[in-house]
Amino acid sequence: MDLDWASCPVKASFSAGSLLESLPVCILVYRNTFFKSSGLDDVYRNSSLKCSVVQRRGADGRIPVRTLGRGASSSAAAAEPTGYPGGSYDTSLLVKYEHHVARHIWFGEERGPKKELKVAGHGLKLNSRVPLALPPQMESWVSRSGLASLQRTSLNKIDTNLVSAFVERWHLETSSFHMPFGEMSITLDDVACLLHLPIRGIFWSPQDVTEELAVELAVDYLGVSQSQAQSHVRSCRGSYYKLEWLYDIFVHHRAASSWAYATRAYLLMLVGSTIFADKTFTLVEARYLLLFRDLDGCSGYSWGAAALVTLYRYLGDASMYSCKQLGGYPTLLQCWIHEYFPTVGKRGENWNPAGNCGLPRAMRWSYRQGVLKVDDLRPILDELTPTDVIWRPFEDHRAWRVFDEICLYRGCLKWGETVVPYLPDRCLRQFGYRQYVPSPPLDCMMATDIDVDWISYHQSVVDVIGSSSVATTPSEVVDGYLEWYYRVSHPRLVPPHRDAPREVPVPVYDAGPSDPDWARVSTLIRRYLRQVNAEEEDPQFSDLFEALHISRSH
């Protein structure tokens, strides 16, 4: 399988631009030579794996000099691993890892016959229930509520395999996804840009709603009869209303010009189908009707925080091995994936960011049937590198959603009785800052003044960014961050080889060339070499390794 390098259009002297144009031809020659002769051509065409540069700890606990990297060695933890195989060596951070789905996946144990989660997506039904235009009397209330954007943001269907693959990396202790290169999360800024929900506002502390009170609320605020309300709540077997029932009430009162009743039913149906969707797939909690008692005052809530708290809660539940369903607003999660990970999963694009006219960014995306199952996606996510991430995807959306510094608030968020930690110091690269080793997560069980902390957020913002600096490259981290991260986390879900020692490899990511064109050349060559598991000592790949070294010298 020798390759005549002279037949390749890349010569000894060339520019980065010419190499960018010629590189696909060179790689095609390699692919045709190697993969067709080995019968692996179809495997290559269908593969979207990307591998990071990794080094394993040696017997002395240090990282050896790497072949494809900058050549410098780093120091790892001196102590031998004492935690879970494939999981954290230091178990002080992920204290619930014993029950986490990732611990079981490492040993090939699935949640059940279906590896993917059951996900509550209401997009198709909601699209059929949301009218093209509301009556002006209702439109005014809906617009002032801050929830109007939710009428159009839902994906018709959810890629359950894609969503499930990311849920397997969520950890409720840190409110973040644990990726091979560090932590990432869905932030308040993401919610603001994707859904156009208000971030600033008050949290909601509801009263308990019994079945009897659920009946009274329906009579007083939805305009139904006592007997109708009793019959319906009884059929729900708890303090719930059916989404379909709320839609019928909306239609009835709209026809009767009972605008307040119609608006409350409509808004409750809307949030029950989106940000407050639960795992019943058909019901919404009756207590949420209390949010809309005063239609002129419901604009004061932090709906963005409400969406995030609810999704964080369900992500935490679904990350446990025993859970098989995901609640919350899956459109928010899937569109977040589409924005940050352009090479992962399949999606349709309704318009590019340059053509946006102020619509929520979630409306940019549409559902496309994915071909990869969750167990196909696991190794793909395992091999992602920082260059596979668009770290600040919404910078071209600032004309419609200016960045709000409250999104850097570090503290607890609360909605109802649910309290979750919100920790932007663990995903600083998403805000344009250099990532440092973050402080231990907050214990929200001990939080007593969450509302006060939220109102006086300024000091926490100073604390978060005061220990960092603006990143010089999008994925910049401080020295020692990855070594720390690989001691306390489980960055991989699948062992590279089932019969191999189950130590966790620590990646050392190349800073790469300074010129953008040469950086692109370097990335393309490196990805191909990793896809075919090329070794520099292999003569059939020596020319591509030489091209790689040339690109890195610019």
Automatic annotation (TrEMBL):
Signal peptide: none annotated. It comes from Pisum sativum. This is Aminotransferase-like plant mobile domain-containing protein. Residues 146-485 form the Aminotransferase-like plant mobile domain. One of its GO terms (biological process) is meristem maintenance. Transmembrane segments: none annotated.
